[in-house]
Amino acid sequence: MDPDVLVIGGGNAALCAALMAREAGATVLLLEAAPRAWRGGNSAHTRNLRCMHDAPQDVLVEGYPEEEFWQDLLKVTGGLTDEALARLVIRHSSSCRPWMRRHGVHFQPPLSGALHVARTNAFFMGGGKALVNAYFRSAEALGVQVRYETPVERLEIADGRFVAAHLKGGERIAAKTCVLAAGGFESNRDWLREAWGQNERGEWPSDNFLIRGTAFNQGVLLRHLLEDHGAERIGDPTQAHMVAIDARAPLYDGGICTRIDCVSLGVVVNRDGERFYDEGEDFWPKRYAIWGRLVAQQPGQIGYSIIDAKAIGRFMPPVFPGVKADTLPELAHKLGLPVDSFMRTLDSYNAACRVGIFDHTALDDCHTEGLAPAKTHWARPIDTAPFYGYALKPGVTFTYLGLKTGDTAAVRFGGAASPNLFVAGEMMAGNVLGKGYTAGVGMSIGTAFGRIAGANAARAARQQPAQPLATLIATEQGALHAAA
Amino acid sequence: MPPLDALVRDAHALAMGDAVPVSDAEAEVARQLQICNACRYCEGFCAVFPAMTRRLEFPKADVHFLANLCHNCGACLHACQYAPPHEFAVNIPQAMARVRGQTYHDYAWPPALGKLYQRNGLTLSLALAGGLALFLVLAVALKGGLWQVPGADFYAIFPHNLLVGLFAPVFLFAVLALALGVRRFWRDVTPATSGAPVSPPAAAEATHDVLRLKYLDGGHGEGCHNDDDAYTLARRRCHHLTFYGFLLCFAATSVATLYHYLLGQPAPYDLPSLPKLLGAVGGVSLALGTAGLWRLNLRRHPLQGDAAQKPMDRGFIALLFLTATSGLALWLARGTPAMALVLCLHLGAVMALFATLPYGKFAHGIFRTAALLRHAVEKRQPSPIGLGAD
Predict the structure, then answer these.
(1) Best of B40, B45, B78, B90 to disrupt the A interface by mutation (most A CBs within 10 Å)?
(2) What is the DSSP letter of A10?
(3) What are the tens digits of pLDDT across the range A371-416?
(4) CATH architecture of B118-377
C-alpha cells in the first residue's frame, strides 16, 4: 500500500518530519540515499542546537532572548534573511527540546573548548550521530518504514501537487504527500565548479574545496525541482557555510576535527608568503566561518597558519600534527613557500607588533602598527622555536541555494504553495541563512522546518489545510508554561 | 621480528630520550585519541574523554591509564562520526581493549606468567581440569571412591585442615600476585596522572564509581550498548548481580571461617544461618548474573571490544557460573550419594578460579579500580591545558 507521507532524506530534518507525521497518525516511508553506515547526512557531524531561552534551562546557562538571537543572525547574514521565518525558527528553538528528548536525544553541558557557547547552544550528548541514531530508533519503533541506499532521481508533480517519486532503479513510489529533506548540493563537484566558475587567475576555485560533510548531498532533487519543475528558488549557489580546515583532511566527511583553531594566535599567509586578512579581528568562534571564503579567494585556494611555541596548548589540538621547524626559513622551506617573501612578511609583522598584556580570553591590546593588513588583537612576535605551520583549504559544510518556502514549509510553484509537497533542512535553509553562519543554527532551522513539514504532510494526507509554524510553537510553549 | 622502520623509530625515540617505545596497540590508541581530542563530542559519556582533554599527547603510561579507565560501554563507538567505514577508523572501545589485554600481560607477576593471558581459554580449561582431577583423585585416595560416603558432612570426605591447606596458599598467592601487578601499574601511571597523592574525597568518589559501575550508565543513566546503538541497562545489572553475588559468596566463606574457628561450629550450615543465607543469595545472584553476561557477550556488537579476548571473557564468566551453580547443586546434593562428586566439582571450580584470578579477566576489576582512583585524583588538579577559546 502507498504510504501517506513519503520523506526523502535521512538527516535531522527528514527524521523530524517522519516522526511528526507518524505521531500525527500517518503511515510514513523514509528514503535515505546512503547506506546505513553513512546515514544521517551532515546531521551526523553536528554537535549542538542554537537555542533561545529567557532563563537558565538545564544545560543552558543564563539567558539568550529572542532579540539577541535575531541580532546575531542578522549580523552574520548581513540582512540576507527573512525576519518572519527567522523569528519562528528562534522561537521554536526555545520549546522543541522536550520533544527531542522524548525521541531519545540527550543533551549535555558544553564540551571543553566550547564554553563560549554555553549560553547559546545545547550540545547533543555524543554529537549529531547519536541524535540521528536516536531518531532512527524512535522512528522504527513507531513504525516508520526506512529504506537505505534508495536515492530518488525525480518527482512526478502535477499542477504543483506531488504524485510520486521515481528511484534510480526505475521504481515508482506514490504517496499522498511528500517532504523533501535531501540536503544541499555541496558534495556535487561539478555543480560547485559551475557555481564558482573560473577566477581571474584562470583557476577553478571549487576544485580545491574539501567537503566537511557527507558525500551523498549531490543536489539531484534540488536541481530537478528548480530546473525541471520551476520551483521557486532562494539563495546564491556560491553561498555556503565554509570554514578553513586542514588541507590534509579527507575529501568528504572530515567533520569537526579537521578545523584549525590557531589562526588568531599567529599569522596566516598565502601561497606567495603574504598575509591577507586581520587574523585577530575578533574571537575565533566569531570569525572561523569567514576564513573558508578568505582562503578560497587566495591563489591556489590555500593558506598557511603559522604559529610559534607560545601558542601551543592554547587552542583545540588539531587532528594532524603541524609541520614543525626550528627556524622560520626552515618552516617556509618545509611548507613549500617562497622563503624570501615569507621572511619579509614575518619580519615586518614581528617588527610591527606592539605587545601589551596578552590575553587570549579578551580582545586584548596586543596589536600591530603600520602594517597592512593589521592584526588588531593577540599580536605577538612569532619568534620562539619550535615553529609550526598548518596548510588550510576551504571546507564546505553546506550550501545555501534552496527552495523558497514560507511558514508552512510548502514548496512554491509560480507564486502558489504546493498543497502536499513540503521542504526542510538544507534544501530550504537559505530562506533564513542567505550567507554567513553562527554555530548550531543549521540544526535549529532543520528541526523547526522538519517538524512543521512533517506535521503538515500528515495533515495534507488527511485533506486538512497546512498549519503555520507559529501554531506548533504556541502549542508547545503553552505546554511548557503549564508544566512550569 | 618487528619491521625495520619500527626499530628505527624506537631507537630514535630512545636516543632523543623523549619517549618510551610504544607497542602497535598503544600507538593505535594514541592515533585515535589525537582525532578524539580534536572532536570531543563524547565527553559526556564517561571518564575517558574528560581525562583525554587534559592532554595534548598520549605517551605509553597515559595510554595505559586511559585504556584501563575505559569500561567498553560502546557509547563512543556508536556515536562516532569517524567510526569504520570512515577512513579514520576510530574505534576507541576496541583499541582500548587491546591495550588493556596488553596491560594485564605486561603487569602480571611473576612476569613469566603474563603469557597465560594470551591463551586464556586454554589456561582456564587446564586450571579447571587440574582442579577437578585434584579433588577427584583426593577423594578416591582418601575414601576409596565417590559413592561410599553417606551423610551430609563435607569434612568426612575432605578434612577441614586439608582444605585450608590447599586453598589458603593458592588464594594468598593470587592476592599477592594481583597486588604486586597493580602496584607496578600504579607506579607507572601516577606520574602521568598529576602525581598527586590520593585524597579522601578522591578515594570516596572512586569507590562510588566502582561499586555503582557508574560508567556503564551512558552518562545519561539509560545504560550502555550491547547489540547495537540502543542503550541498555542489562550489562550494568548483570555485572552487579555477578559482582555482588561474588562478594556475598566470598563473605559466606569468610563468615563460615569465623564460625569454625571462633564459635566452634563447623560446616555444613543450614538456613537461616548467616553463612547459608549469604551463600544462597550470593550463589543465585552469581549464577543469574553470569548467565546474563554470557548471553550479552554472545550478542555483543562485533565492532565493540577485542574479539581476541572473547575466550578470556567467556572462560571467566563460565568458570564463575560453574562455581555458583556447583555450589548451589551441592546444597541440593547433601545427603545423597551424589554429594561427593558434586563436592569435587565445586571445589575443583573454586580452585581453578582462585588459581587463575591473577591471570584472567578478574584482573580487569583491579586495574580499572586503580585507574578510576587515579582519575579521581587527577580531575581534582588544575588542567595543565588552558584553551584560549574558553
Answers:
(1) B40
(2) -
(3) 999 999 999 999 999 999 999 999 999 999 999 999 999 999 999 9
(4) Up-down Bundle (1.20)
Identity of the residue in A112, A128, A317 whose CB atom sits nearest the CB atom of B38? A317
B50: left (phi over 0), alpha (psi -120 to 50) or beta: alpha
Domain A5-184+219-237+400-483 falls in which CATH fold?
FAD/NAD(P)-binding domain (3.50.50)
Percentage helix, strand, coil for chain B under 3-state DSSP, each rounded to 5: 70, 0, 30
Nearest-CB residue to B220 (from A106, A128, A317): A106
Distance CA B296, CA B227 (A): 8
d(CA B63, CA A67): 47
Rounded to the nearest angstrom, the minimum Cα separation between A82 and chain B is 31
pLDDT in tens, A205-252: 999 999 999 999 999 999 999 999 999 999 999 998 999 999 999 999
CA distance linking residue A179 with residue A456, whole number of Å: 9
Could you state, in order of their start, the residue ranges of all structural domains in chain A? 5-184+219-237+400-483, 242-395
- Is A340 exposed, middle or buried (CB count within 10 Å of its CB: 0-12, 13-18, 19+)? exposed
Name the CATH topology of A242-395.
Flavocytochrome C3; Chain A, domain 1 (3.90.700)
Kindly state the DSSP code that residue A60 receives in the 8-state scheme. Answer: B
pTM greater than 0.80: yes
Q: What is the pLDDT of residues A43-81, one digit of tens each?
A: 999 999 999 999 998 899 999 999 999 999 999 999 999
Separation between Cα atoms, residue A164 and residue A170, nearest integer Å:
12
